[in-house]
Specification:
By secondary structure, the protein is an alpha+beta fold. The protein contains 13 helices and 12 strands.
């Protein structure tokens, strides 16, 4: 099901972008879709929501034969909401990769139902070249439907963070679900410092550490951070506008897609967009140019997993503006029973992304210091159990090779 979800997301986003350009008459089905996306491109901000368009009962009926899928999983999925926001100092269609006046936001919420947006589990924002992070650690742990979310160990860990000195205020704020600010350059420089030290120890030099193989040689790989993410926009794409990047894709879409008017429902014009999914995915690779080589492995696989058949999406246009896109995941996965619609809500002209008030600065040294402080406590506990504690420093004369086992 996860492959189907990823493939469906790729197709929906491809289709959304591909129809953004066009010169059809607004009274035709093609014209209604093109006009809606043209209006979206004229806005300076947009918010896109992602969620299942179904009740817990519908989700469970569709996925009950998946491995270890339980009713609790259906309840959890039904309550998940992902919201991505983007704002700029110019029309979205004119934005390029070099623009500095852009802001980005991502929010993952759980426990949503009806008009209730649920509780924020993860919040990310990028404003004025600075990043902001908010995490509800207990809320994320509660998503585990196995009945053993490890809350006891989690509470112990949070308690140890709370006992840190006052100088670790930003760490405490992050652990309690508050906003912290991060300077990406400071973290990058700190990672390079660690990487240089690692390279000296191995005798391999710094050149080997930048091979981009994603083999886990990154100095931060021990924290579970991915090592194969793109580090920037290639120069052959950075100066192009969003509309220019989509031009080759638009040509393919205009040639192969079929759009049918389904009538009006709940005040919105609904249009069925049928597209040859595999061909469109290949055209996306061409449109992305050299950026395709930098994509993480999972996203590359998602492009390859797009089925070689025609798939349909329901596009809703309200008041001439794009309002909602729905795609049935059953088109991508034969193990799904019945229908399982995944929905994208689109709000052009949404509130611009702003920096959260009161965010505390989180420095890389603070994060490393907190980790080392926790490791020091673990060393003392282990040493005491081995009879090596007492008045002596438990770190003296200890074999540090067991660090990874603690």
């Amino acid at each position: 099901m996860r492959k189907g979800l990823a493939a469906a997301g790729v197709v929906a986003l491809i289709t959304a972008g591909a129809v953004a350009c066009g010169n059809e008459e607004p009274s035709t089905p093609q014209g209604k879709v093109n006009n809606a996306f043209t209006k979206l491109g004229e806005q300076k901000s947009v918010a896109i929501g992602l969620s299942f368009d179904g009740t817990p009962d519908q989700i469970y009926a569709a996925l009950k034969d998946q491995d270890d899928f339980k009713r609790a999983d259906a309840d959890m999925l039904a309550g998940l909401r992902v919201k991505t926001s983007f704002s700029a100092d110019k029309a979205l269609a004119e934005v390029t990769g070099n623009d500095k006046g852009t802001s980005f936001g991502l929010e993952v919420a759980g426990g949503a139902s009806g008009k209730s947006g649920g509780k924020t589990l993860v919040g990310l924002r990028s404003v004025d070249q600075k990043a902001y992070v908010q995490v509800d650690i207990k809320g994320i742990a509660a998503l585990d439907t196995t009945g053993d979310a490890g809350l006891s160990d989690l509470n112990d860990m949070l308690g140890s963070v709370d006992s840190l000195p006052s100088s670790f205020g930003s760490i405490k704020t992050l652990a309690k679900g508050g906003w912290v600010s991060i300077d990406p350059k400071a973290f990058a420089d700190f990672a390079k410092t660690l990487g240089g030290a690692s390279g000296d120890d191995s005798g391999s030099g710094s050149d080997d550490s930048s091979s981009g193989s994603g083999s886990g040689d990154s100095p931060l790989s021990g924290f579970g951070l991915p090592s194969d993410l793109p580090t920037g926009i290639p120069t052959d794409l950075a100066k192009k506008t969003f509309a220019q990047l989509l031009a080759p894709l638009q040509q393919s879409f205009a040639k192969d897609a079929t759009i049918t008017d389904l009538g009006t429902k709940d005040g919105a014009d609904h249009l069925k967009v049928s597209v040859p999914a595999r061909a469109l995915a290949k055209d996306l690779e061409t449109s992305l140019g050299s950026l395709t080589k930098q994509l993480p492995g999972d996203l590359k696989d998602s492009l390859n997993d797009v089925p070689n058949k025609t798939v349909a999406l329901d596009v809703a246009v309200k008041g001439g503006k794009l309002d909602h896109i729905s795609v049935d995941l059953a088109q991508f996965d034969d193990t799904i029973h019945g229908k399982l619609p995944l929905g994208l809500s689109i709000e052009g002209g949404a509130d611009p992304v702003k920096a959260p008030a009161g965010a505390q600065q989180l420095n890389p040294q603070d994060l490393m210091g907190a980790v080392m402080s926790q490791l020091g406590d673990d060393f003392k506990v282990k040493a005491d159990k081995l009879g090596a504690g007492g008045a002596a420093d438990p770190g003296l004369g200890m074999d540090l090779s067991g660090l990874g086992d603690i």
